[in-house]
Specification:
The complex is a heterodimer of chains A (413) and B (322).
Chain A: H1 2-31, H2 38-42, H3 57-68, H4 76-104, H5 110-127, H6 138-154, H7 160-171, H8 175-178, H9 180-193, H10 197-223, H11 229-243, H12 251-257, H13 268-284, H14 286-302, H15 306-317, H16 323-328, H17 332-352, H18 356-370, H19 375-380, H20 382-385, H21 395-411
Chain B: H1 2-5, H2 10-30, H3 33-37, H4 48-72, H5 76-93, H6 104-120, H7 127-137, H8 145-160, H9 163-186, H10 199-208, H11 210-226, H12 230-235, H13 237-246, H14 250-270, H15 274-290, H16 296-309, H17 316-321
Helix pairs in contact in B: 2-5, 4-5, 4-6, 4-14, 5-14, 5-16, 6-7, 6-8, 6-14, 7-9, 8-9, 8-14, 11-15, 13-14
The chains are: A mainly alpha (413), B mainly alpha (322).
């Protein structure tokens, strides 16, 4: 009986994974633009050769390969090749992550997880294949957090989350707002459900050390890492030109990261765009907001003990780490991606941990949606909303904000 | 008519409201900045207002067709599925920059009106003047719309064994040919091929659509065992596909094949064609055996409709940021 169950589960997982490979390939091939934007190529010019500067881990890895391999990698063609290989590795990792998720969760909850995974893949693959975010450092941050989540779920080499937290911030200091919450919330969740003092001590200390390291590195990179900017600027700029397509490097990134200039004023136009786009997104993402709010409301309401209610509340508010980014920064497309990934990865991690409340609620929500006549459309609709961009949330929202509102104002001034 | 409308349930209204929202989002996603801002001529329809009006009628006709099919068939979920499937081709196609304003929109809106008459089994003879009008406005519709109507009438004749349908079919073909040749000799057959996808992309697309080709072959293999008449339904795709390939309009070839088959299958299911209903059920079983999420079959072609055929909107911020 058990063997039969195992094989039927494995069969279902195999069927789903094959389907996901097809869908993933279609998403990739349809959205891939074969270009590394100036922002992402310029980032490769920053290395620890110039001191302990921010966002330099990726560049350092790139320069390590330049030193190791018998080819000159300081060239755009190699940037593109490196980007393609890194992105392929990221996608493979995503598939491995979802495979482990499905393997670990109970058979009766496979379907809801599969739908959640498909939803996540539609957004993640297109966003990181299309020109805007292709080879963006975000893929490193997502990988770091997902590996962290797996270590916590499998309870293997959990001390590595400290290293991963540090690596995330070394890739980009924005990690502390964007994807660090996945590791921190899962550690805090484990701390809350720990049954003995030994486990409480373990997860408490892991949480504090990870949080401490992330915070210290963030503060250092934000306030103290740009002391010798003027000395290295010309050298970094020359290399950035070689690494970029047609020598078009990203001025803003170099001025901000190397010289430490405050570019907030130049982003005023983007902030206005963000405000309008955010309002439109409230309408376009409404079906998913409604489902999400109802999901967490029921999850907390149906939790039996106060501790259960609290742990789910913590999961709910975990995405608030993104609030500073939403208020101070302008890349709303990326912030949307981070919020969405946070909820999906944490829910999948809790499903892997076999958290009963989460399992019950996810199944209930899935059954309720599946019974609706419009359930098909809910899965087709995301294709219209991708790829997520950076300053612009996505093409559809951008079009409504910049073009349609203009036209409406012409007709009804 | 009244008794039919009484069959509308709350679930139907919810589905069509959701589909209307989806249609609206498709318009927002695919209408390019050029269409909305610039005062230029589009295709063969001279102004934007006319193009917008006919687009509204086109969308309206699809909804009428969907509602009619849903009300005439017991298994509503199947109709919702097929309506969603048809929508992912029908909604983006003529709202995209490349095809907005094409006279084919007239042809499809009129064809759908004829399809509705056939499905409603009332005043089918009206399809003759309607199709002549469609071909007058867009002669190339002879290779898609006229074939679609002809096959539907032929299937009706096969199911009902009523000679009326053969008469209407012959009149449709004769009227269609006459109008086509008048237009072709006086004004010429206008082809507004835009090449929104290249031949290379199209070949890749055909390879990627292999699962659908296999499903199609399986479907017809079973169907032909039931009746040989259905071979014509399959063969009708040859002139349609061939014409689009000859004119190098690959996006249209992709669109026509899917839209033609889905419309005919939906209409035949609504008309209670047992052979097609059984075959669709058998394919449905096979699909659920192989595919763990059935809506993936709708998502998959929609990815290409959205990101390739209707294209990627160039965002101003991209130019601004550099």
């Amino acid at each position: 009986m058990l063997k039969e169950n195992v094989s039927s589960k494995q069969k279902e997982i195999t069927r789903f994974m094959i389907m996901l490979v097809f869908i993933g390939f279609a998403l990739f091939i349809a959205s891939y633009h074969d270009i590394v934007r100036s922002y992402n190529s310029t980032l490769l010019a920053l290395t620890y050769e110039y001191g302990f500067i921010s966002r330099a881990l990726l560049g350092t890895i790139y320069h390590f390969f330049d030193w190791l391999l018998p080819v000159d990698m300081i060239d755009y063609s190699m940037t593109l090749l490196f980007a393609q290989i890194t992105t392929a590795a990221f996608f493979l990792f995503l598939y491995w992550f979802v495979y482990l998720c499905l393997k670990k969760c109970k058979e009766e909850y496979l379907k809801p997880c599969e739908y959640l995974i498909l939803f996540m893949m539609i957004f993640t693959i297109t966003t990181h294949s299309a020109g805007y975010n292709f080879f963006r450092v975000d893929i490193m941050m997502i990988t770091v957090s997902m590996i962290g989540a797996l270590l916590i779920v499998y309870e293997k080499a959990e001390w590595l989350v400290i290293v991963l937290s540090a690596a995330g911030v070394l890739f980009h200091q924005g990690y502390v707002f964007m994807y660090f919450n996945i590791i921190l919330i899962l550690l805090f969740f484990k701390l809350l459900i720990a049954k003995d003092n030994k486990r409480r001590w373990k997860y408490g200390s892991l949480f504090l050390i990870s949080f401490g390291i992330g915070s210290v590195l963030f503060l250092y990179f934000e306030f103290f890492s740009r002391t010798n900017g003027a000395l290295i600027y010309d050298q970094v700029l020359a290399e950035a030109k070689l690494l970029a397509q047609n020598g078009a490097y990203h001025t803003g990134l170099l001025e901000h990261e190397v010289l430490g200039l405050n570019l907030d004023d130049s982003e005023d136009a983007f902030r206005r765009l963000n405000r309008s786009e955010f309002m439109i997104s409230l309408v376009l993402f409404l079906p998913y907001y409604t489902i999400g709010i109802k999901f967490f409301y029921d999850l907390i309401k149906n939790a039996v003990t106060k501790l259960d209610k609290f742990k789910y509340f913590v999961v709910l508010i975990g995405s608030l780490t993104m609030l500073p980014d939403f208020i101070l920064k302008v890349d709303y497309g990326r912030w949307f991606m981070a919020v969405m990934l946070y909820y999906i990865v944490v829910i999948l991690a809790l499903m892997m941990m076999k958290d009963e409340g989460m399992e019950r609620q996810l199944k209930k929500t899935f059954d309720s949606i599946a019974s609706k006549s419009w359930s098909f459309l809910l899965m087709i609709y995301p294709v219209l909303l991708v790829p997520l961009c950076d300053v612009d949330i996505n093409p559809i929202i951008n079009f409504i904000t910049t073009e349609m509102i203009d036209v409406m104002l012409t007709y009804f001034p | 008519m009244k008794s039919l409308l009484n069959k509308i349930e709350k679930n139907d209204i919810k589905f069509y409201a959701a589909l209307a929202f989806f249609a609206m989002c498709c318009v927002c996603r695919f209408l390019g900045p050029m269409i909305i801002k610039d005062n230029i001529t589009f295709g063969l329809i001279e102004n934007k207002t006319k193009s917008t009006c006919i687009m509204c009628i086109y969308f309206f006709m699809f909804f009428v067709f969907y509602i009619l099919c849903t009300l005439l068939h017991e298994n509503k979920k199947k109709m919702y599925y097929l309506a969603s499937f048809l929508s992912v081709f029908a909604f983006p196609m003529f709202t995209s920059t490349a095809y907005f304003g094409s006279r084919e929109v007239y042809a499809w809106a009129i064809t759908l009106a004829s399809v509705v008459l056939i499905v409603f089994q009332n005043a089918e003879w009206l399809s003759v003047p309607l199709m002549m009008l469609a071909l007058w406005l867009y002669p190339s519709a002879a290779f898609s719309c006229l074939l679609c109507i002809s096959i539907l009438l032929l299937c009706q004749y096969k199911t009902k064994n009523n000679k009326k349908y053969i008469g209407v079919l012959l009149l449709n073909i004769i009227g269609g040919i006459v109008v086509f040749f008048i237009q072709a000799t006086t004004k010429g057959v206008n082809v507004n091929a835009d090449g929104s996808i290249s031949l290379k992309k199209f070949i890749v697309l055909v390879i990627l659509m292999l699962p659908y080709i296999l499903i199609g072959f399986d479907f017809f293999k079973g169907l032909l065992k039931k009746s040989k008449v259905y071979i014509l339904m399959l063969l009708a795709v040859i002139p349609m596909f061939g014409y689009d390939l000859l004119t190098r309009d690959y996006s249209r070839a992709f669109f026509h094949v899917f839209v033609y088959f889905t419309i005919v299958i939906m209409a035949q299911i609504a008309l209670k064609d047992k052979a097609i209903i059984q075959q669709v059920e058998s394919i449905e079983e096979k699909i659920t055996d192989y595919v763990s999420i059935p809506s993936v079959l709708i998502i998959y072609p929609f990815i290409f409709m959205t990101l390739w055929i209707s294209g990627f909107v160039v965002l101003p911020a991209e130019i601004f940021v550099g």
